[in-house]
Amino acid sequence: MLSPYVGRFAPTPSGYLHFGSLLAAVASYLDARQHQGQWLVRIEDLDTPRNLPGASEHILRTLDAYGLHWDGEIIYQSERLPLYQQVIDHWLETGQAYHCDCSRRTLLQHGGAYPGTCRERHLPAAPDHAVRVRVADQPVVFRDRLQGEFQQTADGLSGDFIIRRRDGIIAYQLAVVVDDIAHRVTDIVRGADLLDSTPRQLWLYQLLQQPAPRYLHVPLVMREDGEKLSKRLGSTPLEPRLATATLHRALTVLAQEPPPELADAPVDEQLAWAVAHWQPQRLPAKRQIPEPRT
Questions:
Q1: What is the 3-state secondary structure (H, E, C) of 231-260?
Q2: Binding site: which residues?
Q3: Residue 178: φ, ψ to 5°
Q4: Per UniProt, where does ATP bind (predicted)?
């Protein structure tokens, strides 16, 4: 295990926190605290067209109301653009990355992995050009603490993938890796919807010659219609006044089996119990679990 332990929770301010995002926050918080580590909060606000005004503030107030108190200052990705651009510029200079003018329609015609259309075209920088990073056709393998061994071929997954979009926005895959390295994150606990992103992120760790963190991907809570709880689907925002009952429900869904008498206890008391008894291996090694009935 990398040491000392540093974990993080990294919500996007495209909406308010809902029960699904609470599960990821609680799991990452408990894992960090049980390891006597730091727990950071990072607001991933790069995708400015999707940002909801006031969402960042609401997210932070909600975390505080649920007793999920973070260490240090809040990190905002929108304030770190020069750092991401520095990496992109270096890779463009060394040939590890290149500009791409392929349209969405062109990419849809190929389907699956990017075919490398612009790899050797040596396009100049332009306002409407994306930037892609080169990948090799080799397997990326890692062992998730819950889901077990996971393997994908970087080339087969997506081909050379985008690290800066055509609209100039820094891509998630690059920003998350650069930030986790900068803040010495050792352990990432997050939802299983991001499991498929992990090989691309591990590829970037290799390019940056940095040790990768450990991963634990918790199952997603799925609605009866087969969709995950998400901001996009308008999942009910968390209410601070219901924090006591909702936190107990979250611990139950996370398979921690909190005592029934803890349901009426303050959130700090519930979290203290949960930190002492945290056993992530109790969760099923699945990507999805059904939404519990209330």
A1: CCCCCCECCHHHHHHHHHHHHHHCCCCCCH
A2: 8-12, 44, 100, 102, 114, 118, 172, 190, 231
A3: -60, -40
A4: 231
> Residues with Cβ < 8 Å from 200, sequence gap 6 or more?
135, 154, 157, 158, 161, 173
The 8-class DSSP code of residue 79 comes to G
Give the contacts of 256 (CB within 8 A, at least 6 positions apart). Answer: 274, 277, 278, 279, 282
**Two tokens at 49?**
């067209």
Label the pairing between strands 161-164 and 187-191. Answer: unpaired
- Give the model confidence (pLDDT) of 184-236 as tens digits: 999 999 999 999 999 999 999 999 999 999 999 999 987 554 445 544 444 68
Give the pair of three-digit tokens for residue 182: 């900068």
- Residue numbers in the known binding site for Zn(2+) are 100, 102, 114, 118
How many angstroms separate the CA atoms of 173 and 161, rounded?
9
Binding annotation for ATP: 231
Separation CA 93–CA 1 (nearest Å) = 35
Domains of the chain (ranges, CATH numbers): 6-79+180-290 (3.40.50.620), 81-172 (3.40.50.620)
Known binding positions for L-glutamate: 8-12, 44, 172, 190
Phi, psi at 188, each rounded to 5°: -115, 120
Cβ-proximal residues to 228 (8 Å cutoff; 6+ apart), any chain: 20, 193, 220, 221, 222, 288
What's this model's pTM, rounded to 2 decimal places? 0.91
